[in-house]
Amino acid sequence: MRVFRGHSRPVPAPVVLAIGNFDGVHLGHAALLRRLAEIASQSGLAPTVLTFEPHPREFFAPASAPARLTTLREKLELLAEYGASQAMICPFNAAFAALSADEFIEQVLVRGCQVRHLIIGDDFRFGCGRSGDFALLQAAGLRHGFTVEAMGSVTIDGERVSSSAVRESLAAGNMARAARLLGRPYIIDGQVSHGDKIGRQLGFATANIRIRHNPLPMTGVFAVEVGGLGERPLPGVANLGIRPTVGGTRPLLEVHLFDFDRDIYGAHISVRFVHKLRDEQRFPNFDALKAQIAADAAAARAFFKL
Predict the structure, then answer these.
(1) How many whole angstroms from its chain centre is CA 254?
(2) How confident is the model at residue 200 (pLDDT cuts 50, 70, 90)?
(3) Number of Cβ within a 10 Å radius of residue 200
């Protein structure tokens, strides 16, 4: 995927464009991206996405901003999997937030993206004060030579698919519902790094991934499948949280792989959360923690029928 940072330098050629935050890249996003790929194939133009960093709600209200479902890297990887060949990432800062709806159209869409066909979600608003809407885009398209279409919401079992619904599912530990909305298990990617070796001391060596999601969309202990280490995903048990028993303060993902003893430091792995076992908790001592880890591992093995 070709990535453009900001809109000051235009893309090299006209594009078919989809706009959104795309947090989580759920099935609603997938429908929009499939339409993007379809129009791009018909027109011979590059399928391109426009997204924002940080999320606008992180800029306007950082204390109450929702937990991110994906890092920027994870989001771009998922967008590419769905067929986007280019991404323009607009830094959402004070200057960008102050753009009027007309300025956004002229500076970002027309000059920056050279848009020929634009696809948006049915709730998309833009410009200072969220003053821009579908009707304004249609009128601008007539002046500037682009067409616009809005995608309706995707529903599953009568429920609207949204990033908020995915967050609610994860926070509640309902991994099956989250997977239905996402079209796949919830996944966190990352590079395996050296830790404090506490897991090894407790008899359960772990692959550690430093987490950039802040705040976390969920915490707890999970049955997981790990990709990136072979032809098939490997089963294991994982703790996602701050590890209160050992005085942790920063989020960490610790994964213990069953019947596995390879050195994988530096490997980039994907951890698929398939079932929640319990909430993260503080234990009075290491013996209690060790006993609970053994119970968690047994519960995860039972889930996988190992």
Answers:
(1) 19
(2) low
(3) 11
CB atoms within 10 A of CB 220: 18
Q: Note the pLDDT of residue 213.
A: 73
The answer to whether 223 and 175 are in contact (CB under 8 A) is no
- Alpha-carbon distance of 242 to 259, in angstroms, equals 26
- In the predicted model, is pLDDT for residue 196 greater than 70? no
- Residue 63: is its pLDDT beyond 90? no
Q: Are strands 115-121 and 86-91 parallel, antiparallel or unpaired?
A: unpaired
CA distance 161 to 21: 14
Burial 50-69, CB ≥16 within 10 A → b, else e: bbbbebbebbeeeeeeeebb
Residues in the chain: 306
Residue 206 reports pLDDT greater than 90: no
Helix, strand, or coil here: 48? strand
80 contacts 29 by C-beta, under 8 angstroms: no
Domains and CATH numbers, the chain: 2-156 (3.40.50.620), 185-304 (2.40.30.30)
